[in-house]
Amino acid sequence: MGFFEKKFTIVVACKANITRSAYLHGYMEQYLKDHYPYARKRIRIKSAGVRARRGSSANSVVKHVARVNGFSLKTHHSDPFTKKLVKEADVILVMEQWQKEELLERFPKFGDKIFRMMEYLWHEDPSDIRDIPDPTGQNTADFEEFIEVAHAEVERIFRELGREGII
């Protein structure tokens, strides 16, 4: 990779950028560091919220869950989508169908890079694709379900990016 070559930019997104996308951003960074350390020079991870306000901290429960999983979200601050962010992204991974639809409406020229997380590089039965559950304000079981799905999807996506020669 040349000195000025663009990194492959993944933007993970949810509604407010304080729970799911905040966690996934941190987890993806940690996963790259642990499993694909050479790829950190090739891939950039960012996060945003479809309806986020700038500067909110990560949800306190998800901060704790991040610590338990070996990384910190204490410096995370939410960001809303901007045209600049959408332009620089190679792929935007949203959690729910309504978020995809809203981004497609706001940024129709960039529809080829907006996916629900489970849609991206999915090679199985399309009927198995579903939204990533929002545990915000829910119980421990809901957070556990989110973490299980989030970890499985990150592992799957990075494995597929490896097969595609991106990492």
Description:
Its EC number is 3.1.3.48. The chain has about 170 residues and is α/β, with parallel strands linked by helices. The protein has one domain (about 10-165): 3-Layer(aba) Sandwich (Rossmann fold). It is about 40% helix and about 15% strand. A four-stranded parallel beta sheet has the order 2-1-3-4. Helix 1 (about 20-35) packs parallel to helix 2 and helix 1 packs across helix 5. The radius of gyration is 15 Å and the shape is globular.
List the helices and strands and how they pair.
Layout (H helix, E strand, L loop, with lengths): L7 E7 L5 H16 L7 E7 L10 H9 L14 H6 L2 E4 L2 H10 L7 E3 L23 H24 L4
Helix pairs in contact: 1-2, 1-5
Query: What's the Cα radius of gyration?
Result: 15 Å
Helicity level = 25-40%
Main sheet summary: 4 strands, parallel
Distance between the first and last residues' Cα: 11 Å
Return the CATH topology: Rossmann fold
Strand neighbour order, sheet with most strands = 2-1-3-4
| Number of structural domains | 1
Structural class: alpha/beta
Shape: globular
How much of the residues is beta strand, in percent?
5-15%
Oligomer: single chain
Give the overall pLDDT as a whole number: 93
> Count of DSSP E strands?
4
Question: Residue ranges: pLDDT <50 for 5 or more in a row?
Answer: none
CATH class: Alpha Beta
Order of helices and strands: EHEHHEHEH
Main attributes of the structure:
167 residues, alpha/beta, Rossmann fold, four-stranded parallel β-sheet, 5 helices, 39% helix
